[in-house]
Amino acid sequence: MRQNLLDRLRQLRKRNHFPLDPHSLVNLWGFVQCCAVQSRRLKLLTEDNGLGFRASVSDAVADPFCERSSHHFSMSRQILGGLFCFESSSEALLDLVEAAYADLPSHQLPMIAPEFRIELRLLPRQISPHAAEPPPVRVQSGAGLLCGVMDASNYVVLAPEQQRALVVASQDMLDHPYYLRYELIEFAVFTLATRGLGLVPLHGACVGRQGRGILLLGASGSGKSTLALHSLLQGLDFLAEDAVFVQPESLLATGVANYLHVQADALRFVDDEETRRWISQAPVIRRRSGVEKFEVDLRQERGRLAAAPLELVGAVFVSSEAAEGPDVLLGPVPADEIAARLFADQLYAAGQPGWHRFVERLTQQGVHLLRRGRHPRDSVDALRWLLD
Hints:
Oligomer: single chain
CATH topology of the largest domain: Rossmann fold
């Protein structure tokens, strides 16, 4: 298709019907390719057509900043209400994008969303690759840029005002796909969406039904993921398990429902043998804290993923404290305590624009404390009551 277009333009130019050299339209062609919403697989974005200098791309003297590329591919995904265009000359890196964002519901927010562009660049294998796990990401900012750095060959640079990011990874990082995907690629997507769409980023989970959602908050280890799992298994719509993004005025919540992370002890509450096998056969990832969890792919028709953003009708703080009885799992948080509890639970989000309006709106909806019952299904019943 691209070659046919260039041939046709050459014919028009010979007849003086088109003033531009077809090669000058290569970038326009790439832009059109990149902006095709929800393109299923890779598309050729640019390629060399004999300009004469591509052969020396690997020469650090001729191209010290790696600004030239012989082949460039792209894919687009609708994520968190925004259109993200990923560009790379590495299909392996784009495969990780596909693993993270393929086959997800395309959430739309009631706003004109900008387009976000993320370039992924693969560097040669390091001389001394990381044997066990890569170093943790260190963050920094300055000159309008946000940076997350593992080491000299693995980092992400974001320009939020331009809705752009660069993710750089070495060949050996492909041996650590979880860290590369979660700490660099998803970090770039989440941060750009937060800044570009005016969303409040929350560490928590969210489930719901019929367009209404409940936010699940609480400390690590309180049982949010287990509760989200059983909500999914018992028919509630699953929005997100680890990160939720909320429009502060409308309280519309969106997320990425790709994976669920649960520890092995969560299996003791799963009665169905096929479901236990689905979870126990999932890959095991290791958090930076040292905790190991199953990473369960939710895109296998085991439950319902929220097809659109959910309007929050409240929130619960999930507590590891056992309830005195099945009828006293839920207790309202006094309105004059909600702001302080939310602030203590969401320190990063509390510093973002829109936080105060989010707190006001959520306080109007109501916040509860959810103590632990004898079985997670008791807690799911409590969530159903709040959603009614």
